[in-house]
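Hi R.,

Here are the chain sequences for the assembly we discussed:
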Amino acid sequence: MSLLSSDITALWLTLQLAAVTTVILMVVGAPLAWWLSRSESRFASVIEATVALPLILPPTVIGFYLLMAFSPDNFLGGSWLALTGQSLAFTFSGLVVGSVIYSLPFVVQPLQSGFQHFDHKLLEAAETMGAGTLDRFLNLIIPLTRRAFATAALLGFAHTMGEFGVVLMIGGNIPGETQVLSIALYDHVEALDYGRAHWLAGGLLAFSFALLILLYGFNRNKGLKS
Amino acid sequence: MGSGAVADTLSIATASNFRPVLEQLRETFVERQGQDPSMHQITISSASSGVLYAQILQHAPFQLFFSANESYPEKLVASGRGASETLATYAIGKLVLVSRSEGVNPKDILSKAKRIAIANPRTAPYGIAAMAAIENLGVIEESKSKLVIGNNIAQAWQFFHSGNADVAIVADALVVSARGLDEREKPQRQGLFAIDLSPHLTHPVRQSRVAIKPVNSLTQQFLDFMNTAAAKKIIVDGGYLLPMTNKNLKQ
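And here is the predicted structure of the full complex:
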């Protein structure tokens, strides 16, 4: 038994979901992590706790609330339907929304920790030398915290690849739209198709392991240098 | 019944469609037993029949299996795990098309639907039946892209109930049970229309059950209870037909 086209479709879909989610999370997560690393307001700990919630919440809690919110009877689902003509449940867009929430801490926390170790005197120096905000961000912060950025991106990507419970509740198992690898695997197991299940499970295991080796190897090397 | 109160336990595995009725059966059975009102001795687990069948093959600790088809219990008997004398068809399910818009032609409703929720045809007999009905109605090609697959029939029904799918093809029993709930909790949530799809099926959904060996006395008592008029009434009221001739279900 080997991989069938529906498994290839699931693989491609999962990679797309992980990529889109990671890009969104890096764009949203970086300013949020920066603010969290600098803020001294009491409100910041509330935001920090909110960001960390998906780490400890059962995915079914997120899945349940999302499914309720996605219903066209409710504000989010209704507005989305009016705007796009599509419902959020059972669509790729819906999975992106779920994944962004689900993987948020995996991106924000490494960034925040990287920013906390960033020497802010450098920024002040650059500012006195006339560097603009974007200039300072692109040419100073990113290069000096690149390990944090790499960790955040890799963890966000890997965690989204492994998402299951949320997708099970809001996805509807549609090939090419919401049937990601973990769901396709579950489907094979339940249908007693262990041959195909082995392909997907083994593939995910090898991929996740390789990604983590890459991540730790990268951090170790850079860690020794700086 | 009742006097031989032994420390038996009964773990029942049931296809999701039968769960609401089985819960009522358990309640009545426990009431009739009288001396021990605790329901903890009988537990109910629900999933799609295919999933439960696989679990029983893997020696999941169930004593009784209510499937949504006839073949899984038959296979368990053939493999020696099921007790052949307990094999029986306990209900004939009704497949219904539910939507929120009034209409009498199932073909039109499916054509106009945005999302059609069904149970997973790979593991759920009602999913297979739903696919067969869609095919027999001649709308399979246009419906394929609209299908939303629930892990079992309860999830397919929930996709519809939560408003995320506008049409679902499920067991009538779930609709009957939810109507009761809705009337209590959400009286405003009316306007649910169910059309019987049985005329569009080549085979009725015949549901069989079997006890897993060894059969303990509590399991046997429950099976005896299933043959009573009271139990049959609960099954019929729950949205099922009774099999016409079946030696195991005679009065």
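The interface with chain B takes residues 67-68, 70-74, 77, 87, 89-90, 168, 172-174, 187, 190-192 of chain A (CB under 8 Å). The domain at 5-56+88-225 of chain A is CATH 1.10.3720.10 (MetI-like fold).

Let me know if anything looks off.

Best,
T.
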